[in-house]
Design brief:
It contains two helices and four strands, in the order ββαββα. The protein has helices at about 10-65, 95-105; strands at about 1-5, 10, 70-75, 80-85. The protein is elongated.
Length: about 140
């Protein structure tokens, strides 16, 4: 039997339970400190990078006058939908340009055409260029 400073006797199970409770409290405190550190760092970097983001937004708006942010729907591991907002890096297509580009698609547009072999590079010619190897 273990004795506490009050002189009361505790069983080993009670002592182990108290130690686990202290360990859980310490783990919980470490978790809270870690979460607070992440939040503080995120706010600091947001403040530091906000001038750069503002300049990027102005440049995108002046370039073609379209929307600054691109909104994309994504799914979590469990299928819950959420939106990601990014700075737009491509030019916006007009309706006429979009219709024109869809008419010129090959019959097998669903196939991925960007593999290394489809571009002619399979490593056999020793060139790491993404063009066809010379005959």
């Amino acid at each position: 039997m273990a004795k506490k400073s009050t002189g009361r006797a505790y069983s080993q199970a009670q002592v182990d339970k108290q130690r686990r409770a202290r360990g859980n409290t310490i783990r919980r405190a470490i978790f809270v400190v870690a979460v607070l550190a992440v939040v503080v760092l995120a706010v600091v970097f947001l403040v530091l990078l906000s001038p750069l983001m503002l300049l990027s937004a102005i440049a995108i708006k002046l370039d073609d006058g379209g929307p600054v942010l691109f909104k994309q729907k994504r799914l979590t591991y469990h299928g819950k939908e959420f939106y990601v907002y990014k700075f737009r890096s491509m030019a916006m297509q007009t309706a006429a340009e979009e219709k024109k580009s869809t008419l010129k698609r090959p019959a097998r547009s669903w196939q991925r055409k960007t593999t290394a072999v489809s571009h002619g590079w399979d490593g056999s010619c020793g060139s790491a260029v993404w063009t066809n190897c010379p005959s």
